[in-house]
Amino acid sequence: MSFREKYARLGERYEVLEKPLDRFFCPLRKKAAAFVRGRALEVGVGVGKMLHYYPQGIELHAVDAVPEMVEIAKRKAKELGLNARFYVMDAERLEFPDESFDTVISSFVFCTVPDPERAMEEIHRVLKPGGRAIFLEHTKSDCRLLNWLFLKPLDLLLGWLLGDNTLRETHELVRRYFEVEHEESHYRGVVRLIVARKSEDVGKTFKGTDG
């Protein structure tokens, strides 16, 4: 069963299952959203956890690979009175022209996408020069003991349940494509907030990659 099918089966129950983590993650979501400006794209909107925190005055577009999640996010945006456009779309194949957005943000997405390298290429492609890329992501911990005693068994469970891989080194992947301006490590590196810019000197060889 693909990750799309697994998340589709969960539907609104996903938000209930994730509720215990909100006390840890919601303050970080709020902090990440504060960096969003202009015409913005959220990659992997899920059930719309980030929608509560976006600043006023932005033009928000949001995509997710799971249609059921997109419908939940749409309803949430309507309840919040938020003007946003939603699309069913893979992170690895964003159907937007090059250099379309001032900001691209992802929140706990790169643990799920099947091809994180391709997804990062796409984010780089659709972001305007000098635009801001924001990542709030699960990553491998700085502590080896924590990785082996706790995170590895948890990762096996989440992989079976959802198709997730929470031990990816997404922070290192970001550095290959973007110029990192700000990085925060939380819970011994299990979660990282990274704010980066699209620079002419970093990741330029990937610009416009389409296959």
From TrEMBL:
Keywords, comma-separated and alphabetical: Methyltransferase, S-adenosyl-L-methionine, Transferase, Ubiquinone
Stored CDD domains: AdoMet_MTases
Record has S-adenosyl-L-methionine as a keyword: yes
Pfam family, one: Methyltransf_11
Stretches assigned to the Methyltransferase type domain: 41-135
Top-rank taxon: Archaea
SUPFAM superfamilies xrefs: S-adenosyl-L-methionine-dependent methyltransferases
The keyword ATP-binding is assigned to this record: no
BP GO terms, sorted: methylation
GO molecular function term, any single one: S-adenosylmethionine-dependent methyltransferase activity
Protein name from the UniProt record: Ubiquinone biosynthesis protein
Species, as recorded: Thermococcus radiotolerans
Source lineage: Archaea, Methanobacteriati, Methanobacteriota, Thermococci, Thermococcales
